[in-house]
Write a structure and sequence with these properties.
- The structure holds 2 protein chains of 2 kinds.
- In chain A, 33% of the residues lie in helices and 29% in strands.
- Chain A contains 17 helices and 22 strands.
- In chain A, the strands form 6 sheets. In chain A, strands 2, 9, 10, 11, 12 and 13 form a 6-stranded mixed β-sheet that branches.
- In chain A, α13 runs antiparallel to α14 (301-314).
- The longest helix of chain A has 18 residues, at 252-269.
- Chain A starts with a strand and ends with a strand.
- By secondary structure, chain B is of the alpha/beta class.
- Chain B folds into 2 domains: 1-31, no CATH class; 35-210, Rossmann fold, CATH 3.40.50.300.
- Chain B contains 7 helices and 11 strands.
- In chain B, β7, α7 and β8 form a beta-alpha-beta unit.
- The longest helix of chain B has 14 residues, at 120-133.
- The termini of chain B are far apart.
- Classes of the chains: A alpha+beta, B alpha/beta.
Amino acid sequence: MMQWLALYFPDLPLDVFWSGEESAPVAVIRRQKGWDIIDRCNASARQQGVRPGMALNAALALYPGLLLHERDDKRERQRLETIASWAWNYSSRISFDPLLLLLEVGGSAKLFGGIDVLLEKLRNDPRAPAAVEYHALAPSPGAAALLARLRPGTRVRRTENLQGVLRDISLAHLTRNRKLLTLMQGIGLSTIGEALELPRPELARRVGQEAVLLLDRLLGRMPDPRPLWQPPEHFQQSLLLLAEIDQAQVLQFPARRLLNSLSDFLHGRDAVTQQLHWRFLHREAPPSQLEQGMLRPDKRAEHFLELLRQHLERLQLPEAVVEMELRVDDWQAADKIHEDLFVPQQHEDQGFLERLRARLGEEAVHGLRSVSDHRPEKGWGFREALPASGDAAGPEEPLKGEGNDPLWLLPRPRRLPQRNGRPWHEGCLQLSAFSRRVETGWWDGEDVTRDYYRARNPAGQELWVYRDRRSGQWFLQGVFE
Amino acid sequence: MVRLVFSEMGAEVTKNLDELLQQGLLWRGRNGPLPTARAVLPSGFERLDESIGGGWPRGALVEILSQGPGLSLLLPVLAKLSRKSRWLAWVDAPWLPYVPALTARGLDVSRILLIRGRDANQGLWAAEQALRSGNCAAVMLWPRSVSNAQARRLQLAAEEGDCLGVLFRSRKALGQSSTAALRLEVQPSGGKLEVQVHKRPAGWGGRRLLL
């Protein structure tokens, strides 16, 4: 039998905004008959005397610093989807109602060892993105939604018990159809129970077929098909900042919320990612972008956040940020075996290297490898400083240098000026010893023929220089100790 | 011995452990090696070892003051450390280490981590992270500038990460006091290196030797 669990989030219209401090009084407003009305407000606003239903002017008179925004359906829906991503762990049949999630748990209850166990687990889930305070269980989705809103905590298992539970609820909660409501009130009906006491043909004749259908669905006598939610392929979420942020470092606080959402998204799919795209929107300037790449895919919000902090240290903001957005296009299935067998030492490596890279930039941290090439500038290469990837490829047979090679190499040979036919580097160079002749590279078109010397400049620096035998030019390539 | 006592005390363990820690009677491993058993890494130069108390101090900061040379003093110990699993970090090195020359001296270059900061502070930050992380056997830093307070932080980080930290500084820094455990001045002298020990752990500095 179908069992619908409704989860109601009355504070969701407030939760979609980032207000800076917890203690800031915040309210969302809606327009009603040409007036701006306080729709919801947080506890701090309530302390100032602000109440839902109050006219905006009245609220502002009470507390002029009230942070305000109009209710934002799009963001509310987005937030519900985030919660749905998490709820996906408990049921794959999810549907939406305003500020409310409907989960069909009759089917998945077996996996958890019964509905009570499932509910217990869900309500105490530390990963829940929002507190699950208002919930109800019923055999029809309509009844579950109604009860979660009006009688949170109610659990009705059997269809025949629904009638008794719903009896006292006002018909105003059954429909928003004003005309229908007026009709029903006109014949003296005010509660669901009163409407159910009339014989069905009588009710249909007096107020129309629609009312009968609504009641039948509510009581589970007729199917109530709901569009089922499909989890999105990509993660994209934005957060509007009611308090603008002009210091990059401060962005980490609202970022935490987006990262928690992302983490839920990934957990729900048992997935991991290694590339986060951030966008920070300004009033005038074009959006600032931040690419957060990671060495290893992950799904932990804490881990993402720690690396983001390092990135933020380098971020230059042209203007204050008014909105931020997190997007993830690519994710992959988490490889469980890999995760469990991961050696702690290597795991440590990851964190350490990632911290360095995040703060200094990808280009600032490298490993080294040797390459079999007699041209010194090609006798080495950078490699990804990842132990796993480097070792898997197998190191190339190292070309051993000669004992009298220099310890230091210039990134690129530097051409030296000549004075009186002799190379010059911070003074005239004295060639002290012939090092070797290198003739190689014919196979890749960069063939060279060079004579290497050890040389000393007037400051006493020992240098490794060569003469290109074709052009006669001198180059500095290394430094001895 | 201490551990043995704990297992007998059973449930009392946590409380007593806290007490012992508060009274300073208990030494915790992560605070570094016991002062009596100072760990050293043989430098590969017998005469140098004699002059600096047995070898490079492990979990401490070494300062090498020179106008350029100095790395070659460290090659034997780096070669040995490169056989283990931890990194050898080179932070803000003046040039690229020449791979074939290092390989010829027995160093496994796959353990080398080259780190370059964009300014002096980034280099110092990276060196401190590397020292503290426990992922590096040795961290060498060629700082563009370093204050005494910063050097002190590096010394503490080296202790925490049980890492050999090496700070290459100009000989001009001789005038400044130093918190490093070991301080050497190095200069070329007729094809050899002249090493002057200015400060060493558990002993007097002042010795001069040619290597």
